[in-house]
Design brief:
By secondary structure, the chain is mostly helical. The chain has one domain (about 1-100): Multidrug-efflux Transporter Regulator, Chain: A, Domain 2, CATH 1.10.1660. It has helices at about 1-5, 15-25, 25-35, 55-70, 75-85, 95, 105-125; strands spanning about 45, 50. It is elongated. The model is unreliable at about 90-100 (pLDDT under 50).
Length: about 130
């Protein structure tokens, strides 16, 4: 798990977008889990934006594994995560196997889209 979290930038707090990309969940799913389960518990900056810590990422990865992969109920997943963190923050081995590096074909596709958009802008500008 430390190798997986080691792929993150060396900073103390993360934005919602960064957390969603890293954990591979949608922002509305993250907000729903925060509201229904009470996990994670991000701090907020004065403007109201959420600030997540590394411990929040660990709890999110575990929640995702329980809810999506193992089909545990929301409350059951909450109980399990809280119990595990009280015992010392154990994380399932399957969570540590997730790849933190995105698929290179995604970068290729994004670059092609960028080039197409630039060509369209040039065409519309002239």
């Amino acid at each position: 798990m430390s190798d997986y979290l080691g792929a993150l930038p060396d900073k103390k707090f993360f934005t919602m977008g960064e957390v969603c990309r890293f954990c591979q969940i949608k922002p509305y799913t993250l907000r729903y889990w925060e509201k229904r389960i009470g996990l994670p518990r991000p701090s907020r900056i004065p403007s109201g934006h959420r600030r997540y810590e590394r411990k929040d990422l660990i709890s999110l990865l575990r929640l995702k594994e329980l809810i999506i992969d193992q089909k545990v109920t929301l409350l059951g997943a909450r109980k399990t995560v809280l119990k595990e963190f009280k015992k010392g923050g154990k994380i399932s081995p399957s969570v540590s196997k997730i790849s933190a590096t995105p698929d290179p074909s995604l970068f290729k596709a994004l670059e092609e889209i960028r080039q197409d958009l630039r060509a369209a802008v040039r065409e519309l500008s002239s």
